[in-house]
Design goal:
Helices cover 30% and strands 20% of the residues. It is of the alpha+beta class. The chain starts with a helix and ends with a helix.
């Protein structure tokens, strides 16, 4: 319950703007300015207890405590490594990023691309940090993490061996912003080793909050070179790589000095005049800072002799820095994959480029309630979270000449690198898109059931279901209203996710779920309406005082249901009995009189009928995925969040709900709804309690 409270608190924080780039979340609740000021006042350099200079911060396996790779590692501050360290010297450049002994070339390629736009870089690397003025051994960086910006504090103790930085370093050796940034990113992900292996696009997204597109270069679209140019002009970040067919090929160097399975960044795309014709060139950066392409248009190749000095100057033609030019035709032959990170409107500060419109939702898949799996599982598929996008305006100047609405959908699961540390696998994820039926258009207070989703085909789907951090695809559909259903491939998988939609034209988006409400008919009866035989039996049970205690109530209920073979139950508990009495006890005697017991008996008869209707396999229990429909039939309209809480509280280990749990749940729902309405002020949808009132109600 405390974790649920923490999640709700984070939701409230986001409603107040915490997590935006203007108001980043304090990672590990560490405030940079407060900590720095404390260090300056005490005269001591900062030591980060949340990410200590210890082996456990290095890793858990290959960089773990018993690994030969961690022997001889000494943590040192930059002032112990050189006489005049600089945070950033004459601006951050791509040569500041050289790979060390960690397999995070994907990350370094992303960092290198940041240096192409210093406005974006300043968002990740806050300016004004140095080793001189107000130096206190503390630095901070900001990263986008699953829908929110976080501010990450680190001390400047860096892992070294033989007096040299173990991981990323600058070519000159005296500039430390990239090494400290790598440390901050390692802290966010748990340790340095958690950064080994990945796609450049992951770094792109975490440094910008953007959304990724991936192109297989053996199937390059006709206008891909123009797409690259436009993306670069819009400030998008681009990366490329060469596929490997086995682990033996990892970082193998080809005859033309390209590295397989290695992340490169794309930093330019230009056309030049060469021997009377126009040639398209792509500029690529190897984060190693060395090992460059040796084919046509490489540094020092003959082709450059036929290019004017003005064009050479315009192309920033340099040598021996890990950056090189390659013709576009060779690029799509030699490389396998291109990644483009499209930026959010708040990142693109110029009005001279087109901006995507950006929409974002958080969601969870939870076993027994919202983890419905893909369409292959029709009995649970509609249980998944649902989101709607309404597309109204068609694209301007479509490349294919046909009217339609272009949009990107990205589904990202959370905390994959932390799971890696725990030796847990990430889930296989994807999504389907359905046209919303006319009767549901414009509504957000519904949850589309199997009667809607299973009677039609999806109009679009993710290109694949895959066990990766994010699945993202580009679509073009006619104007209309569409439901996006994200899911894991198999049902019954717990995970949390972010769903993002980028549209060329403005669109309306919303989370699709049932409004919370109760619609119960109030039964009005008098004692003369009670059947005489029922009254006689009640008196036999209750005695002369005509009152039944909670202990007697539980005994009666268990005696009744023990004679039924069509339902399974562990018996009504004393806790459920107390809930029943709390709901129906009008005079606060903690006992039930004749009329109160009559109301209860009618409720149980009604609930038994509903329970049997939803026990579709006649097992005597009800699947937790049926709970939403059963609660609705009983008069309780619950959304996915409440459904998750119900399943956690009332389902068994196989996510089945027996009859006594079903009754207890509905009684608790009715009581909670009534308590809320009694305390609600002026139909505001909110209540306010002091600590005593909260504790008394929660315990009661």
């Amino acid at each position: 319950m405390t974790s649920t409270a923490d999640r709700l608190a984070r939701q409230q924080d986001r409603q107040q703007g915490i997590g935006t780039k203007q108001h980043a979340v304090k990672f590990s609740q560490q405030d940079y300015e407060t900590l720095r000021q404390q260090c300056l006042e005490s005269g001591r350099l900062f030591e980060d207890s949340c990410f200590p200079a210890e082996i456990r911060s290095l890793g858990y396996s290959e960089l773990g405590p018993y690994s030969s790779k961690t022997r001889g590692v000494v943590w040192k501050r930059p002032k112990e490594l050189c006489s005049n360290p600089k945070f950033i010297n004459d601006g951050a450049t791509r040569t500041d990023i050289c790979q060390g002994d960690l397999g995070d070339c994907w990350l370094l390629a992303a960092i290198a691309s940041l240096t192409l736009d210093h406005r974006i870089l300043a968002r990740v690397v806050p300016p004004g940090q140095s080793f001189t003025k107000d130096y206190a051994g503390i630095f901070h960086f900001q990263f986008w993490q699953f829908g929110e910006w976080v501010d990450v504090v680190v001390d400047d103790r860096l892992p070294t061996r033989d007096g040299k930085l173990l991981f990323v370093h600058s070519a000159e050796g005296s500039e430390f912003w990239s090494a400290l940034m790598e440390k901050a990113y390692a802290k966010v992900n748990g340790c340095y080793e958690a950064l080994a292996g990945g796609n450049t696009i992951e770094g792109f997204e975490d440094f910008t909050g953007g959304i990724a597109e991936i192109y297989a270069l053996d199937k390059a679209p006709p206008k891909l070179f123009q797409i690259i140019q436009r993306a670069l002009s819009q400030g998008s970040l681009l990366g490329c790589s060469i596929n490997i067919t086995s682990t033996y090929e990892t970082e193998a160097v080809t005859a033309r000095k390209l590295v397989k399975g290695h992340a490169y960044s794309v930093t330019g795309a230009e056309e030049v005049h060469y021997q009377g014709r126009v040639v398209q060139l792509v500029r690529i950066r190897n984060p190693w800072g060395q090992v460059e392409w040796t084919g046509p248009w490489s540094d020092g190749s003959n082709e450059w002799k036929y290019i004017s000095e003005d064009e050479k100057l315009n192309l920033n033609h340099v040598a021996e820095d890990g950056e090189f030019w390659i013709s576009y035709s060779d690029f799509i032959k030699q490389f396998s994959r291109l990644e483009i990170c499209n930026l959010t409107p708040d990142t693109l500060m110029s009005d001279n480029v087109g901006h995507w419109n950006h929409y974002q939702f958080e969601g969870m898949w939870r076993v027994g309630s919202t983890a419905g799996g893909c369409r292959n599982h029709p009995s649970t598929f509609s249980s998944n979270p649902q989101f709607v996008v309404r597309l109204e305006d068609v694209d301007d100047d479509p490349l294919d000449g046909e009217d339609g609405c272009t949009f990107l959908v990205g589904l990202m699961q959370k905390n994959g690198r932390q799971k890696k540390m725990l030796h847990c696998k990430i889930e296989t994820i994807g999504f389907a898109i359905y046209e919303v039926p006319d009767e549901y258009k414009g509504r957000c207070n519904v949850h589309l059931g199997p009667d809607v989703l299973l009677r039609q085909r999806a109009v679009a789907m993710s290109s694949t279901f895959i066990n990766t951090r994010e699945v993202c695809d580009r679509f073009k559909l006619p104007p209309g209203e569409y439901a996006i259903i994200p899911s894991t491939f198999r049902p019954h998988k717990n995970s949390s996710f972010i769903l993002r939609v980028f549209t060329e034209k403005r669109a309306a988006t919303r989370y699709l779920d049932t409004d919370l409400l109760v619609s119960l008919s109030q039964e009005e009866i008098s004692e003369r309406d009670v059947d005489p035989h029922f009254k006689y039996l009640f008196k036999q049970i209750a005695g002369n005082d005509m009152e039944i205690s909670v202990f007697e109530l539980v005994k009666i209920l268990n005696n009744v249901i023990s004679h039924r073979s069509d339902i399974k139950t562990d018996g009504f508990s004393l806790e459920t009995g107390r809930l029943i009495v709390s709901l129906l006890d009008k005079d606060e005697s903690s006992m039930l009189g004749l009329m109160e017991f009559h109301l209860l008996w009618n409720k149980i008869q009604k609930y038994l009928e509903i329970f049997k209707n939803h026990d579709t396999d006649n097992s005597g229990t009800m699947s937790s995925h049926e709970m939403r429909g059963a609660a609705t039939e009983a008069g309780f309209h619950v959304n996915s969040a409440v459904l998750q809480a119900i399943v956690s509280r009332y389902a068994d280990a196989q996510y089945a709900i027996d009859f006594d749990s079903f009754v207890g749940c509905l009684i608790k729902l009715e009581m909670l709804f009534k308590m809320f309405k009694a305390l609600e002020r002026a139909d505001s949808g909110k209540i306010e309690l002091d600590i005593q009132q909260w504790l008394c109600l929660a315990i009661y």
